[in-house]
Specification:
Layout (H helix, E strand, L loop, with lengths): L7 H5 L2 E4 L4 E5 L2 E5 L4 E9 L9 E6 L3 E4 L3 E4 L10
Parallel strand pairs: 1-7
Antiparallel strand pairs: 1-2, 3-4, 4-5, 6-7
InterPro entries: PRC-brl_dom, PRC_barrel-like_sf, Spore_YlmC/YmxH
Pfam families: PRC
Protein name: Sporulation protein, YlmC/YmxH family
């Protein structure tokens, strides 16, 4: 079995692509980590919303929805959850 390792910096610079829609979602802003189990629960991607106070909103994608981490992109299956947002 071959393991590929990526630094957090490299992963944050990879574009997130929805495999089903073929759409670019954005870039990872943050990770949700379960410290008790030492594993990543989900990735957080900022979305552009016009807000007077500038509060940033996020799309949360569970780590289990990541299909493949490639050289410069991450393929995810959002199971159609983003179709209404685009």
């Amino acid at each position: 079995m071959e393991f590929n390792f990526h630094s957090l910096n490299n992963i944050k610079n990879m574009e997130i692509i929805d495999l089903k829609l073929g759409a670019k979602i954005g870039f990872i802003r943050d990770l949700k980590i379960n410290c008790d189990e030492s594993k990543i629960e989900s990735i957080l991607i900022p979305i552009q919303k016009n807000s007077f106070f500038g509060k940033m909103e996020f799309i949360e994608i569970p780590w289990s929805d990541i299909i493949k981490i490639g050289v410069d992109v991450i393929l995810v299956d959002t199971k159609g959850k983003l179709e209404g947002d685009n």
